[in-house]
């Protein structure tokens, strides 16, 4: 994808109109220069026709220039908005595993830095187009003035462009390296925001983080940027001097080689001087354009490029709401993680499990045995590498996975809490929420108004209760809680296991609970124990020696 295609996708009509207006603007600029040259070269006072032509060209240039700029500004702002929305949608449509592999810091760098870089370039595109149109129109005018001089000039121009492109390529590779360092910088920024407490509490850790990690990366980023931008500056200065060399050639060398009329020479000198400002502008925008190209490449390399990368159907309208289901089945399901540094694989499965409505199932096992991974597989967040998942005999594939995920309400151990109760449009949402707040003993802390919670700045245990509240409001057939009770005080832990879970079960919900609380295993209908990624046993708690 390049910048032009990005603009074309936004609105082909607007882009065409803007380019036409830009060409007209550039053409009239060249026309004005031609008129000025013609007037200067004639030895008699200007005719009325010339004066009126000059006034008309001024007017056309004013209107065309304005129209082109306004159209392109509108177009570029629309392109940025579309890009922001598209990229956010792409991220949300990408498989969870792919996003985990990319890493939050890289996504953050793309959503902030890459979009900012692309936006900056898109915003200068209007002026880039108009200046290019002016340069092209001036070149046409020069060609019309004298073919011989033009051909010599063109050869000179080609040599100039080639000598400019060479350092440009070098600069581009340096900017690419700088962009890689930017990803690492974002990783360090995440460490600063998420590890503030750990860094504050340990002076040596903080100093070594600042010196060895952050500073080293920031210095490397700076070095690549400085060299890259200096190469650009050198190329731009070289380009500028080439113009004067061209004028020098024209004035001092060419007349001695071939016969050229002085009026043509002065017209050439005037036009080249006029062209210098738009050309300088074009050259000054090249570093920004190059950065944007690097940013676009980065977006593509993350697998978040604009062509659809997810084969999943995002519509759920084609499927019935699954309030009454009979059987959820996992057949030989596997998932593996490749741990690059350890060069080892963690393999979960093959897993064969069945779940029924109204069942309370505990998933237990030691740390790292694969419980959370299984939860992600069951809820459709991970796609099984091998094996199949069936809901009432319906094979879950890309076509219906989005619908399948809508059957689950989950509180993960690393849950996220939204301040607004998004996507819940019940008429009495506030009343229902208030009711649950009281049930979860949060009504003295949190209020709700028009679906907005008064605060989420609470203790971890209280925040988990708010996450539980959200799942209550979602009212879906299958509930999953990943170590939900681990942050609760003994009193509320007891309420969770002995009141809330049985209540959900009595409402016909299937409840899958990942837990280490063996004191409460007896309330489950079934216990599934995982060990090293395999199901060790699946039993009624009455038959287990806890
Ligand atoms: N995002 C990941 N990338 C790579 N490996 C991972 C990832 N998440 C988990 N693993 C690996 O998979 C294994 C199982 O992890 P999982 O989180 O499923 O275990 P768990 O049983 O939920 O553990 P715990 O009780 O500590 O929460 C672990 O050994 C871990 O190293």
From TrEMBL:
Any GO CC annotation of this UniProt entry: plasma membrane
Keyword Cell cycle: no
Xref: InterPro entries: AAA+_ATPase, ABC1_TM_dom, ABC1_TM_sf, ABC_transporter-like_ATP-bd, ABC_transporter-like_CS, Cyc_pep_transpt_SyrD/YojI, P-loop_NTPase, Type_1_exporter
Annotated ABC transmembrane type-1 domain residues: 12-291
Alphabetical list of SUPFAM superfamilies matching this protein: ABC transporter transmembrane region, P-loop containing nucleoside triphosphate hydrolases
Location(s) in or outside the cell: Cell membrane
Membrane topology of this protein: Multi-pass membrane protein
UniProt GO molecular function: ABC-type transporter activity; ATP binding; ATP hydrolysis activity; ATPase-coupled lipid transmembrane transporter activity; peptide transmembrane transporter activity
Gene3D superfamilies assigned to the protein according to its UniProt record, in alphabetical order: ABC transporter type 1, transmembrane domain (1.20.1560.10), P-loop containing nucleotide triphosphate hydrolases (3.40.50.300)
UniProt keyword annotations, A-Z: ATP-binding, Membrane, Nucleotide-binding, Transmembrane, Transmembrane helix
GO annotation (BP), single: peptide transport
Residue ranges occupied by any ABC transporter domain in the UniProt entry: 328-546
Pfam assignment, any one: ABC_tran
Residue intervals passing through the bilayer: 12-38, 50-75, 122-142, 148-166, 231-254
Name the record gives this protein: ABC transporter ATP-binding protein
UniProt organism field: Chlorogloeopsis fritschii PCC 6912
């Amino acid at each position: 994808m390049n910048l032009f295609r990005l603009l074309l996708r936004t609105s082909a009509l607007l882009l065409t109109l803007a380019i036409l207006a830009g060409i007209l603007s550039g053409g009239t600029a060249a026309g004005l220069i031609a008129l000025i040259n013609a007037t200067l070269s004639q030895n008699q006072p200007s005719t009325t026709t010339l004066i009126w032509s000059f006034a008309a060209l001024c007017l056309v240039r004013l209107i065309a220039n304005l129209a082109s700029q306004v159209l392109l500004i509108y177009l570029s702002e629309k392109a940025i908005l579309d890009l922001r929305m598209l990229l956010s949608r792409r991220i949300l449509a990408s498989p969870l595993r792919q996003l985990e592999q990319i890493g939050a810091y890289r996504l953050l760098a793309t959503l902030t830095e890459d979009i900012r870089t692309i936006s900056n370039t898109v915003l200068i595109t209007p002026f880039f187009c108009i200046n290019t149109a002016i340069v092209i129109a001036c070149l046409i005018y020069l060609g019309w003035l004298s073919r011989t001089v033009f051909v010599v000039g063109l050869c000179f121009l080609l040599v100039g462009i080639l000598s400019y492109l060479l350092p440009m390529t070098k600069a581009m590779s340096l900017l690419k390296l700088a962009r890689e360092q930017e990803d690492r910088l974002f990783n360090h920024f995440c460490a600063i925001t998420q590890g503030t407490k750990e860094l504050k509490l340990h002076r040596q850790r903080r100093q070594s983080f600042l010196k060895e990690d952050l500073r080293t990366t920031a210095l490397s980023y700076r070095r690549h940027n400085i060299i890259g931008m200096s190469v650009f500056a050198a190329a731009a200065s070289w380009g500028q001097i080439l113009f004067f060399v061209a004028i020098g050639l024209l004035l001092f060398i060419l007349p001695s080689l071939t016969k050229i009329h002085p009026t043509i020479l002065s017209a050439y000198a005037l036009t080249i001087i006029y062209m210098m400002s738009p050309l300088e502008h074009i050259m000054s925008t090249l570093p920004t354009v190059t950065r944007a190209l690097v940013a676009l490449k980065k977006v593509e390399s993350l697998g978040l490029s604009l062509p659809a990368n997810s084969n999943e159907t995002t519509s759920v309208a084609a499927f019935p709401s699954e309030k009454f289901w009979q059987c959820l089945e996992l057949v030989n399901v596997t998932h593996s993680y490749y741990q690059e540094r350890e060069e080892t694989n963690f393999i979960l499965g093959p897993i064969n499990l069945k779940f029924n409505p109204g069942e309370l199932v505990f998933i237990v096992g030691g740390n790292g045995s694969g419980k959370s991974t299984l939860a992600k597989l069951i809820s459709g967040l991970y796609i099984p590498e091998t094996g199949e998942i069936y809901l009432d005999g319906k094979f879950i594939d890309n076509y219906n996975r989005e619908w399948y995920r809508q059957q689950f309400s989950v509180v993960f151990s690393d849950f996220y809490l939204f301040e607004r109760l998004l996507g819940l449009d019940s008429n009495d949402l506030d009343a229902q929420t208030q009711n649950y707040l009281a049930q979860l003993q949060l009504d003295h802390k949190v209020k709700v108004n028009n679906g907005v919670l008064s605060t989420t700045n609470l203790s971890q245990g209280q925040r988990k209760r708010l996450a539980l509240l959200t799942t209550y409001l979602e009212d879906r057939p299958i509930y999953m809680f990943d170590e939900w009770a681990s942050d609760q005080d003994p009193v509320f832990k007891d309420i969770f296991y002995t009141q809330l879970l049985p209540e959900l079960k009595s409402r016909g919900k299937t409840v899958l609970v990942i837990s280490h609380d063996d004191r409460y295993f007896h309330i489950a209908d079934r216990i599934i124990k995982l060990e090293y990624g395999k199901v060790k046993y699946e039993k009624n708690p009455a038959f287990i020696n806890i």
